[in-house]
Amino acid sequence: MAEETVRQSELFSDELNDESADYSASNIQVLEGLEAVRKRPAMYIGDISEKGLHHLVYEVVDNSIDEALAGFCTHIEVTINEDNSITVQDNGRGIPVDMHEKEHRSALEVVMTVLHAGGKFDKGSYKVSGGLHGVGVSCVNGLSTKMISQVFRDGKIYQQEYHQGKPQYDVKEVGTTDLRGTRQQFWPDKTIFITTTYKYDILANRMRELAFLNAGLTITLTDLRLDKNAEAGIDGIRKDTFYSKGGLRDFVRYIDSTRTHLFDDVIYLNTEKQGTPIEVAIMYNTSYGENLHSYVNNINTIEGGTHLQGFRTALTRVLKKYADDNKITEKLEKQHIEISGEDFREGLTAVISVKVAEPQFEGQTKTKLGNSEVAGYVQQAVGEALTYYLEEHPKEAKLIVDKVVLAATARVAARKARESVQRKNPMSGGGLPGKLADCSDRDPANCEMFIVEGDSAGGSAKQGRDRHFQAILPIRGKIFNVERVMWHKAFEHEEVNNIIQALGVRFGLNPEDNKEANYDKLRYYKTIIMADADVDGAHIATLIMTLFFRFMPQLIRDGRLYIANPPLYKCTKGTVSEYCYNDVDKQRFLDRYGDGTDTGAGVHIQRYKGLGEMNAEQLWETTMNPETRLLTQVTIEDAAEADYTFSMLMGEDVAPRREFIERNATYANIDA
Ligand code: 0RA
Questions:
Q1: Where does ligand 1 bind, in terms of residues with CB under 6 Å?
Q2: Can you give the pTM of this predicted structure?
Q3: Quick one: pLDDT band at residue 488, thresholds 50, 70, 90?
Q4: Which among 104, 132, 172, 614 is most buried, taking Cβ atoms within 10 Å?
Q5: For the packed helices 25-39 and 2-11, what is the interaxial angle rounded to 10 degrees?
Q6: Is the pLDDT of residue 571 over 80?
Q7: Same domain membership, residue 255 and residue 194
């Protein structure tokens, strides 16, 4: 064993060209492998921001999920430790620790230090999981200052520790145990990641999603950081247990829980075609939107792909046939109305999950399934299940088809209305809204547009801006709630129309090809929502975000939507004055220049109740000047969760909305 140790430490030295050392080809690959990961981390985990940081956890959890899919693991425990390290423990068989024949090292060490080695030595297993990039746990190891692997097998605890991926000793026995499974703890490398602070909510959303996607698996998430928990208003340790018996049946109910349903049933299928497991759950609600969420091997396929295509085809064909058989199409044709694909999906919420042995991921973000055979499998599976459902449930079938007819009728009526509006006002085609104060630069990459609540704040913003690259679009009060209205109607709404026209995009789903809006003509690379820092302002910002999320999600994915953060206070003491953007900033000022209270020791606090209270110069200085302002970028971490959140925020139910706003509020205490 002593010899092993020496060899391994040499293996990770930089003396690659040392001819005298006895390196085998595979050993050199090991060295290059993890060095490469540290040199170009983004190539392996996407990026080195918060997203990449959280990706490390998913990568480790994925290995445990594979063990669950193989049928040997029922429980995964994820812990955020006090020092921001992460522990993932499962009750599976434990990673094998015996000698790897070819590598002459413990199998555990191979898994932990060889890129893409995970599961390779276990041919019989059905490995379908794997992070988005499928890089394996060795990647996490390489990007961690320290990692400790423990395996509980045959009554013993085996352990190995790594620094930046380098083993510190051979796998050794460190004790006895009644447990079975694998425990991984890692400390993300601060010299690699922009931030190493984990966010509970981001991990919780993914663990909830994984529990829905893998029925019967229990995932617990624990946060031992008392300070972070206190910030979230939680006293002591924070913990959630995610478990779903019904799988996607529960998932679709969760996503759709704040909408009104056409009927209570979930249309559900769980089957296999040619060795490809397929699970689908469908609900119909009374809204006008279509919400499809698709997964391949537990990965959210944001760009869709063949599985989604198979689903759409089956849905359209089966419902069309039902409508034909019941003479409904005939009736519509007499009114010159033809049903189109989108009509079948209005008010539909569905989750599609397939497990593909060798997935080909395509598209810009590698989240589009390319395997052509899967389209046929899904189409067949959904076709059979839906046909059967309609036969067995005539009442529900009628409700669905009535809704389709209504959608088609309304769509045709809306088109006629739009055409007549456009005929009357020929400018509405390509012109810019009269209220827009445009910028002079014509290169969209340099330009930004502020959507400003209220005419008076709009006036200050127009005066305060840098007119070269900043455009101002004032909007009046609340724009309409896109969650509650058919999207065709958006064209009839002035404020929404102004936003769309100013952006220069064709928005919404294009009925011809079901593709999203066309962004080629986008006039500003940044859109910045500027609203008051109070509950009303938050509501307006949410309405605008919903508009983007539902009709122009690609703009959010491309990182083009922002929220401005105006200050809440201006604190002055003598000649010193500072803008404070939250209560923590204000307290810091009071502690520094006063006696810590709002009134003591001659400190003056000016509280801004709205944007309108700031003059043009102040607005520029605090909120618009790129040198000094604070912008929040809007992101979609998790589309299913965002779907749930927006429908909840925009829905009729007040209680969950209030709770969400209270939990996420960052306004001054006065409003809370
Ligand atoms: C391959 C074979 C065996 C276990 C595993 C992989 C395994 C890997 C991971 C990663 C995280 N948790 C895990 N649990 C198990 C066991 C083969 C055997 O015991 O016969």
A1: 63-64, 67, 90, 92-96, 119, 122, 182
A2: 0.77
A3: low
A4: 614
A5: 50
A6: yes
A7: no
